[in-house]
Write a structure and sequence with these properties.
Blueprint lengths: L1 E4 L2 H21 L1 H9 E2 L6 E2 L2 H27 L1 E10 L4 H8 L2 E8 L8 H14 L4 E8 L3 E8 L2 H9 L9 H17 L5 E6 L6 H14 L3 E6 L3 H14 L3 E4 L5 H17 L8 E9 L1 H23 L4
Helix pairs in contact: 1-3, 3-11, 5-6, 5-10, 7-8
Keywords: Membrane, Transmembrane, Transmembrane helix
Protein name: von Willebrand factor type A
InterPro entries: VWF_A, vWFA_dom_sf
Length: about 325
Amino acid sequence: MRITIQNPLMGIVIGLILIAIVFYTHRAFPRPIYRKLYRVGHTYLSFYRGERQRRSSRLSTLFIKIAIASLLAVALAGISIVEYVRIPIESSSISSLSFNARTPVVIIVDTSGSMADNMDSVKYALRTMVSLFNNTIDIGLVEFSHSIKSAIPPTPNRSYIDMVIDRMEAGGGTMYSFALSTALSWLRPYRELNVSAFTVFITDGLPGDPQDYRPLLDEYNKLGIPIYTVFIGEDPRGIDETKLIASKTGGEQFTVESIDRLSDTLNTIASKINTIIANINVEISMYKEIEMSKPLTPYILAIAGVLYTILRFLTYRKTSLSF
């Protein structure tokens, strides 16, 4: 919200002119009338009845006149309050967009050097998980270690995803931030269209970049993208780290102490996501932000009118004149 003035220069000029007129008429016009009303003849003395009261009264009426002049100048300057309002966009293209919207699930897989002995089991579990997702889901894949090894944006092409899974090789360190930021960049446009999105994060190691990846969790949470985390192993630090990711994003954490249980765990996650999607009524909404201007001139003139009424009352009470 902000305040705008359409003609500030005109308001200043008119304000100065009105205030000058107020000062001139206040000093030049009423005083002779007051003298006639209040002057009393005396052999030795002439005085003005209630001189102190009249001075106080004239000072108060002067302030009121200045206030009225200032308000009129502001009203003529065209002051308004501008608010930014989001309104839905009505378009025939929205219906077709709603029809084509598919829920994205991005699978993030740690293939650092520590995963070398488990790669065959990981590949099998991933292929099985991909096959279990229902046909309304687009699947994305991020393979990472200390950098991004492969990145496939959400796609309905399951065969291509399986091919990339088969080519995975272990090696390198463990950096969470690159993989999470990549997935976030893909999923953000879906959430802006109010399409549900999910992430599955699989790792067996601790991050070398906690200070870099943790701020990303706030973005996931703000966009409403849950991360389902799977930690392979028994290291309590890794379990706690993946619990942190899940809790901050509204997801769920799973621990796989034995690699043989990885496939069952991923199948459980796939079933959970399928169930959630089946119960979601996707409504795509697009909005645009517009400026709404609310003129303050009527309110300013109303205040000026009230002050003018008060001024006339004070003048009448002191002089019995209504002008």
